[in-house]
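QA checklist item 7 of 12: single-chain prediction sanity check.
[x] sequence parsed
[x] length recorded as 450
[x] structure emitted
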Amino acid sequence: MTGRLPRLPVLVFAKPPRAGEAKTRLAEGVGPQAAAALARAFFQDTWAAVSSRTWAEPLLATTDPEAPEWRELRVRRAWPQGDGDLGDRLERTLGRALEAAPAALVVGTDSPGLPGDLLDDARRALETADAVLGPSDDGGFYLLGLRRMADGLLQGLPWSSAETFERTKERLLERGLSVHVLPRFFDVDLPGDLEPLRRRLARGEIRAPATARALARLVTAPPRVSVVLPVLDEEARIGRQLRLLAGSGPWHEVLVVDGGSRDGTVGVARAVDGVRVLSAPRGRALQMNAGARAATGDVLLFLHADVELPPDALSHVEDALAEPDVAAGAFLTWTVPDAPGRRLAPLLHLADLRSRYTGLPYGDQALFVRAGTFERVGGFPEQPLMEDLELSRRLRRAGKIRTVPARVRVSGRRFLSRPVYYFVLVNVFPLLYAAGVPPARLARLYGNPR
């Protein structure tokens, strides 16, 4: 069947623009309040774009039709999305729209400034095609239109994936629907997407006035940084470490995670005001993951007991994470003897070369990471050795890792006790791990991983 279509429903899929619920991945870089303000602006511009088409009947499809935010935005028609994954919710709402119309469209709000011409193209495509798809830059789609719905049409697809568009297109074709593909368009999901959005607005490539105003007002709140300190039998140094930490903050919180110390480590830590002491099975990965689960900050900084932060550490963390596309960061190292007069002390700085040239930070570099990113990559792999290197590999796939221009002081106690062995450890073990040697075998060679 062909022919010009009458007025069509266009469903705008959106959550209420509420802090902590909307644009949570964006909130990792700008904070929950700013993310909610941007989500509100994205909706306003998308709703205005749909409402500007004389042939379109705008309808909100949302997780909470009664939310006060929709009344504030003067949305008069709102449908519940219902339960299930995105495919279930799309099927449900599109099916409802198709009961009363010959075709229906759905758009998200992640592409503020969506040109009306693309909406017009989608409507025209549905005069002859069974379906229309608008691919987005991240592998998803910004628009879906259908003339008919089939049971299970969108079930079991990989949502929020680089394969979403292609797999959806394949599914539509498998069910016998003809598909028209629109030009690709951008969307905004991550903090790193904001700068390209600013450039598009500045160059006049898109028109999104509410979004432009929200971006102009955007002030990124300083991150709340939780320091996680795994310890084991560190009575001799934990008190000094915690006193130094107090002078390099203010930190959101300090969590000491004990792995079964048999000395007075726990008692010393508990005596320091503002320090939370937790217990976890022995093993740095296990202890740091336990601390991360208990932390309430926006950023996690993992600090070894024998590594001292510089006094201005917090400002370096804030500066690094002010760049939205930075997922994590670390410091340079400066390895020093615990006491003066050691003959091999000058050789300690050979261990610091790695921190200047590697893009994959080790644990002694005081690695810091956005809490949401840490959770998304699965945290530290719970393996006996090289857990820090493996986490860095995962983080590099999630965003940039910034090495800040400041040094942490690292105790040279292990190097000075066995210099040749430790030199081989820090330089050869990573190569063996990269070559596929299992962490358990490396741990046996290491002797006593802490």
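[x] summary fact logged: The longest strand covers residues 400-411.
[ ] second reviewer sign-off
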